[in-house]
Amino acid sequence: MADKKLTVVICQAQGRNPVKRQLEEDILAALMADSDVDVSLLPHLYDMPQNHSGMEFLRSVPGPLLVLGWLYERAIRWTLDRAEIRGHEGETLLKNEDDQVDEDAEMPELHGIGAVEVPDRRIYCIDLRASGDAEEFVEEVQRMVSAEHGSAFDLMSFIQGTPSEEQLSRYLNPERQLEARKALDNGTANSSDREALPEDTRRRWYPVIDYTRCTNCMECIDFCLFGVYGVDALDRILVEEQDNCKKGCPACSRVCPENAIIFPQHKTPAIAGADGEVSGVKIDLSKLFGGDDGESAIEMAVLERDRELVLDGRDAVGTSVGLKQRDRDEFDDLMDDLDALEF
Ligand code: SF4
Ligand code: SF4
């Protein structure tokens, strides 16, 4: 057993937004000067394929891990889980204001199927939209370092994957990576700069399952007619063919009775993984997954699925395929209670 430093990973924004890049660089510069943490720079978390060297790097981190990314905390956590990067949930105090849970609000009971073995370390996640001030992130990192002080880990027990040293070295020298990225942006990059940078990623769109909520009811696999979902050896639902998912289609997230399906890049916070859906004023839970013009969640899902079927040259199926009549359950009761409160 040994003490282990906190590894901080900054996952970069998509595109070249200068404000976002500056924030990433300011946090990176401050943390590189902090001997209490190891810091690395990675491409956008959601866009990295499972075999990307950045994912391999994340799998190789042996101790406590903090991932900062341009996604809601829940979306970061379950995107990591999908890549088998796991740990106990570390507490984060710095939060995106769309992602605040009302402590007094009644939350739906969680009865998920997420009973997988979790390594004995903590994983912290922070949404980089939580603040525009790098100093606030640095203070939060220092708080986490204090929380981790004295924690001990069996270092080798859960290192996964077999990343090569060459792959890992890209992430161990973020200063060089930053320099190479700037050269690429300026059009002055040479071959050594290109080698210092991670493999390219493209923008992706696929569902991520929150297994603390998922009950394995299989409604998503019945509803999706594009072969995205499958089951593992234990008949547990999983996202099997992520690239079969139709860009911009969040239909199955509207059908899932447990709100367990996250589309991290969707514009609606609840679908993108925000945790504050029962916090009242901001979001009406009964309309949460429905349309802006009052369509129910199921109506929206059917419209979205039909649109994608027609774009694929297939026939629309409406409500005739893959929809189960749900029994009234506690979740519906909770929605009624919230309606009665007239948020
Ligand atoms: S519909 Fe939701 S709860 Fe049911 S299996 Fe799919 S993700 Fe899990
Ligand atoms: S969003 Fe649409 S295409 Fe993608 S998994 Fe869900 S139903 Fe299938």
Explain how this protein is built.
By secondary structure, the protein is α/β, with parallel strands linked by helices. Helices cover about 35% and strands about 10% of the residues. It has two domains: about 1-195, no CATH class; about 210-340, no CATH class. It contains twelve helices and eleven strands. Strands 3-2-4-6-5 form a five-stranded parallel sheet. Strands 1-7 form a two-stranded antiparallel sheet. α1 (about 20-30) packs parallel to α4. The radius of gyration is 21 Å and the shape is globular. Residues about 275-285 have low confidence and may be disordered. It binds iron/sulfur cluster (2 copies). One iron/sulfur cluster binds next to α8.
Structural topology:
Layout: E1 2-3, E2 6-11, H1 18-32, E3 37-42, H2 53-60, E4 65-69, H3 73-82, E5 88-89, E6 122-127, H4 134-148, E7 152-153, H5 165-172, H6 174-186, H7 191-196, E8 208-209, H8 219-223, E9 229-231, E10 237-239, H9 251-255, E11 261-262, H10 269-272, H11 297-311, H12 330-340
Parallel strand pairs: 2-3, 2-4, 4-6, 5-6
Antiparallel strand pairs: 1-7, 8-11, 9-10
Helix pairs in contact: 1-4
The structure holds iron/sulfur cluster (SF4) (2 copies).
Core attributes:
two-stranded antiparallel ribbon, binds iron/sulfur cluster, alpha/beta, 2 domains, 11% strand, 34% helix, 343 residues, single chain, globular, five-stranded parallel beta sheet
- Helical/strand content category: alpha/beta
Radius of gyration, in Å, reads 21 Å
**Overall 3D shape:** globular
Low-confidence parts, pLDDT < 50 over ≥5 residues?
A: 277-286
Number of helices: 12
